[in-house]
Write a structure and sequence with these properties.
The protein folds into two domains: about 270 residues, Up-down Bundle (Heme Oxygenase, Chain A), CATH 1.20.910.10; about 70 residues. Helix content is about 60%, strand content about 0%. This is Heme oxygenase 2.
Length: about 450
């Protein structure tokens, strides 16, 4: 379907262009016209659509689509649609994948730089995405395209996200987690989650941000239409394969960043591959074993995708287009993350600094040379003490004694001694000594 307003992709959108507010000059990177981006090339420029103005039409236009539907999304010419759909999705989403990985929000999340409250808010945003996606997959579980990869007991993330949020909320101050009154009520469009909704999470459900609204709207649109439902495979591919790959790195880093002792608080990143949660919690599972199991699951998922799509080249093209849309929507979703204004040391960085400080305080290793040096210093100190007591003091004392008796002793006897006897001694006998005696008696009882 072509755009009803004639124009070229390189020009600024003309007046009357449907459902699209042209990007302003302040949002356009140097050297870009804010309209086109290279097609599926690595290190593509970031989106110029402001986060609060995200619409599906704006994202399609920015991609260089010839029309206003996802089917108008441009595809790379080198793609061979006789290839399996898993290979096509990998090759056909390279540019969008790179853009998502290098967004600012994704970097802050991966490095564990988010405050705990902001990280919990991000989990709530993800819960809404997975809840909508997994409801759609459940509804179309028997669809021939979706059935080979349908395995909610292994893949479903919404329950794990709810468990993580429930575990992490009590770690925040009570004034932050205090629920609002009256509590939020569920609606057909916005189902309530199985976890508490303090004010900072309630806004995710009441005032849905534009990138999340567009993402949810697209998933629900596919779920409501049986003909479009097979495209849910592309969204599941982007989310699940990402969680099985890069998500494992994030989960490991967040464990250190937030001081999480086991799986609690990071179950979203853990897939119960063979009912082996106990081994992961006790540390019996090695990194190599875990990686091997994850690779097996990813291989199974790709085989299921290939089986579901079969040889239908039109369907494969639709899946590649939909996967690119999913990547772009996820990239804009990362814009909802609010990194801290100033970088703070993470948990493991503080630990490393403390270990370094302690290592500097450790005593140097004893050597024969150091032992000999300390022995020489000891004997020199003894000789100096003997010199003072046996020679220096007896020689100097007769010269100092007359001056002390003449000048110092009268002052001590006339001022300091009376003050000491009149003030200090009575106070000590009345208050100081009883307290000391009581403490000494208590110490003796404790010792016995």
């Amino acid at each position: 379907m072509a755009c009803p307003v004639p124009h070229t992709k390189q020009a600024t959108p003309p007046a009357g262009h449907p459902e699209l507010t042209p990007p302003s000059a302040t949002n356009t990177p140097d050297g870009l016209n804010g309209v086109t981006t290279p097609a599926f090339e690595p290190n593509a420029p970031p989106s110029v659509v402001p986060s609060n103005e995200v619409t599906l039409a704006a994202l399609l236009y920015e991609s260089g689509a010839d029309g206003r539907t996802v089917d108008d999304w441009p595809l790379p010419e080198e793609l061979d649609f006789a290839s399996p759909v898993s290979e096509l999705l990998r090759k056909g989403t390279q540019r969008a994948h790179v853009a998502a990985e290098h967004s600012g929000g994704a970097t802050a999340l991966t490095n564990g730089e988010l405050e705990l409250q902001e990280y919990i808010r991000w989990l709530a945003i993800l819960w809404r995405v997975y809840d909508a996606l997994e409801r759609g997959l459940d509804e179309h579980a028997t669809n021939t395209v979706l059935a080979p990869t349908y395995n909610p007991s292994l893949l479903a993330r919404a329950p794990e996200l709810a468990a993580d949020i429930t575990y992490l909320l009590p770690r925040l101050p009570s004034y932050v987690t205090k629920p609002t009154s009256p509590p939020l009520k569920a609606t057909p469009e916005v189902p309530l989650p199985p976890f508490a909704l303090p004010p900072f999470l309630e806004e995710v459900f009441v005032n849905t941000p534009a990138p999340l609204e567009v993402y949810l709207g697209r998933i629900k649109e596919l779920s409501r239409n049986a003909d479009l439902a097979p495209r849910l495979l592309a969204h599941a591919y982007v989310r699940y394969l990402g969680d099985l790959s890069g998500g494992q790195v994030i989960g490991a880093r967040l464990r250190k960043a937030y001081g999480l002792p086991g799986l609690d608080g990071r179950r979203f990143y853990y897939f119960d591959l063979h009912s082996d949660k106990s081994s992961a919690e006790t540390g019996e599972e090695t990194v190599g074993e875990r990686k091997k199991k994850l690779n097996e699951v990813k291989a199974w998922y790709r085989r299921g995708m290939d089986e579901g799509a079969g040889e239908d080249q039109k369907l494969k093209a639709a899946e590649v287009r939909e996967a690119n849309v999913a990547f772009v929507l996820n990239t804009h979703l990362f814009s909802l993350i609010q990194p801290p204004t100033e970088k703070k040391l993470r948990y493991f960085e503080k630990r490393d600094q403390e270990n370094e400080r302690r290592s500097k305080l450790e005593k140097p290793r004893r050597t024969w040379a150091r032992t000999l040096q300390q022995t020489v210093y000891f004997f020199l100190a003894v000789l100096f003490g003997l010199f003072l007591t046996q020679i220096a003091v007896p020689f100097v004392a007769p010269h100092i004694a007359p001056h002390y008796q003449q000048h110092v002793s009268p002052v001590v006897d006339s001022t300091i001694a009376p003050w000491w006897n009149d003030k200090v001694v009575p106070w000590w006998q009345e208050r100081g000594w009883p307290v000391l005696e009581k403490q000494m008696a208590k110490s003796r009882r404790n010792f016995i």
